Amino acid sequence: MGPVTEHVEQLRTLLLQRSLRRGDFILASGRRSSYYIDARLTTMSGAGQIVIGALGLDRLRRRGWRPSAVGGLTLGADPVAYAVAAAAHRAGITLDAFVVRKQPKAHGTARRIEGCFQPGAAVVVVEDVITSGQSAREAITVVESEGAHVLGVLAVVDREEGGRAMLEAAGFTVETLVSVKDLGLGANGG
């Protein structure tokens, strides 16, 4: 088993142990589901940071994406961006992170984008879980309005409920580290 395969298995195990909840849930997309993946319980863990950073960096390399920064809509995207940026640093690659606020700050600079973001830069939008794709789409709209060039979208989990297809139909390449099928779950039920 190679390091990438090993990391995928570690991520799968972490998500199943830490992040999967069964019950009756209303998702951010408004859809009902018999399971909920609280990816933050994995993405914010030390073990999750190491695995997600390594896998995320591997996907950027395999795609040939060379962003200057990664980031997305707070809060789900934040630890993913930090993990990938840290993994890049360990590998000797310059890659920073940024955060897209849900609303502009009411004080100070009133910015929606915080952190290491430069207009005109090539970026990858990251996400913890893609369901409808709306969070990633909102982040793309904000960073493009500030002059960034979006190379693609990188998500930890694809719930396989149309978000990936919507983003791809809008012209964005989507990479995901695992899908609900990889976790032994069905798209809507489980």
Task: Give the SSE layout.
Layout: H1 3-19, E1 20-26, E2 32-37, H2 40-43, H3 46-63, E3 69-73, H4 78-90, E4 96-100, E5 113-115, E6 122-130, H5 134-145, E7 149-158, H6 163-169, E8 174-179
Parallel strand pairs: 3-4, 3-6, 6-7, 7-8
Antiparallel strand pairs: 1-2, 4-5
Q: What is the CATH topology descriptor? A: Rossmann fold
Structural class: alpha/beta
Number of domains: 1
Give the proportion of residues in helices.
Answer: 25-40%
Order of helices and strands: HEEHHEHEEEHEHE
Uncertain runs are none
- Overall 3D form: globular
What would you note in describing this structure?
This protein is of the alpha/beta class. The chain has one domain (about 5-180): 3-Layer(aba) Sandwich (Rossmann fold), CATH 3.40.50. About 35% of the residues lie in helices and about 25% in strands. The chain is built from six helices and eight strands; from the N terminus they run αββααβαβββαβαβ. The protein has helices spanning about 5-20, 40-45, 45-65, 80-90, 135-145, 165-170, and strands at about 20-25, 30-35, 70-75, 95-100, 115, 120-130, 150-160, 175-180. The protein has a six-stranded mixed sheet, sandwiched between helices. It has a two-stranded antiparallel ribbon with strand order 1-2. Helix 1 (about 5-20) crosses helix 3 (about 45-65).
